[in-house]
């Protein structure tokens, strides 16, 4: 995580193939779905996101995204998911639980 000052944070996130939010993070945070808002840019790999409202999306290299609270996610394929997160609170706190 990089603190650029004035409330601007950028987080580089890497998740390995097989990573699933509900298996890797849910036990630590104790919520049924991820309650963070994510704004970012994927630079490698693919992520499948399923929302509690039933909608779903896949994100791949070069794609910008907004993921609202209330989702599960998993890395798909054999490549690491790599992204940069820009949402101030998520970039500052994600992964520190």
Which descriptors apply to this entry?
3-stranded antiparallel β-sheet; 97 residues; globular; mainly beta; Jelly Rolls; 14% helix
Helix content: 10-25%
Shape: globular
Instruction: Return the domain count.
Output: 1
| Tally of DSSP helical segments | 3
CATH class: Mainly Beta
CATH superfamily: Jelly Rolls
CA gyration radius, whole angstroms: 13 Å
Structural class: mainly beta
Q: How many strand segments?
A: 8
CATH fold-level assignment: Jelly Rolls
CATH architecture field: Sandwich
Outline the low-pLDDT stretches. Answer: none
Q: H/E series, N to C?
A: EEHHEEEEEEH
What is the percentage of strand-forming residues?
over 45%
Give me the side-by-side strand order of the main sheet: 1-2-8-3-6
Largest sheet: 5 strands, antiparallel
Mean pLDDT: 93
Distance between the termini: 14 Å
């Amino acid at each position: 995580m990089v603190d650029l000052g004035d409330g601007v944070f950028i987080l580089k996130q890497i998740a390995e193939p097989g990573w699933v939010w509900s298996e890797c993070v849910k036990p630590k945070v104790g919520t049924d779905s991820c309650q963070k808002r994510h704004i970012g840019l994927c630079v490698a790999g693919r992520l499948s996101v399923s929302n509690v409202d039933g909608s779903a999306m896949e994100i791949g290299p070069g794609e910008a995204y907004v993921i609202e609270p209330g989702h599960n996610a998993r890395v798909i394929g054999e490549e690491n998911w790599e992204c940069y997160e820009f949402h101030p609170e998520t970039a500052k706190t994600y992964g520190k639980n």
